[in-house]
Amino acid sequence: VQLQASGGGLVQAGGSLRLSCAASGRTFSSYKMGWFRQAPGKEREFVAAIRGDSVITYYADSVRGRSTISRDNAKNTVYLQMNSLKPEDTAVYYCAAQTSGYNIRAGAEYDFWGQGTQVTVSS
């Protein structure tokens, strides 16, 4: 599985961005998909995740209410809509695919990772 993240950029505080992650493979709908981020000098952290059926989503407390994860299984793509962005959201954002695992919030349980897209929020 190959993942290609895009949509990052420079935005002012309060602005919005929509990240996209396109996946290869014919079994995309069976993957749990997640977004993680890593800021300079900090550890990678969970942002959001979605199960294959799109019914259940998960969010970190830091982004809940400001972000929405969604997926289009017909397009093999997962999205992260981020609103009301804050300077502390600045990080490289990674999408990842979990083919089998129990903890959807644990990066260690994801099998495939995209290359990352930079999000910079200016104050």
Average of per-residue pLDDT values: 96
Rounded radius of gyration (Å):
13 Å
In percent, how helical is the residue content?
A: under 10%
Strand content: over 45%
- Global outline: globular
- What are the secondary-structure elements, in order, as H or E? EEEEEEEEEEE
- Strand segment tally: 11
Please count the helical segments. Answer: 0
Q: State the distance separating the first and last CA atoms.
A: 37 Å
Helix-strand category: mainly beta
Please give a structural write-up.
By secondary structure, this protein is mainly β. 0% of the residues lie in helices and 48% in strands. The chain has no helices and eleven strands. Strands 2, 4, 5, 6, 9, 10 and 11 form a seven-stranded mixed beta sheet that branches. Strands 1-3-8-7 form a four-stranded antiparallel beta sheet, with no helix packed on it. It is globular, with a radius of gyration of 13 Å. 33% of the residues are buried.
Could you list some keywords that capture this structure?
single chain, 123 residues, mainly beta, seven-stranded mixed beta sheet, four-stranded antiparallel beta sheet, 11 strands, 48% strand, globular
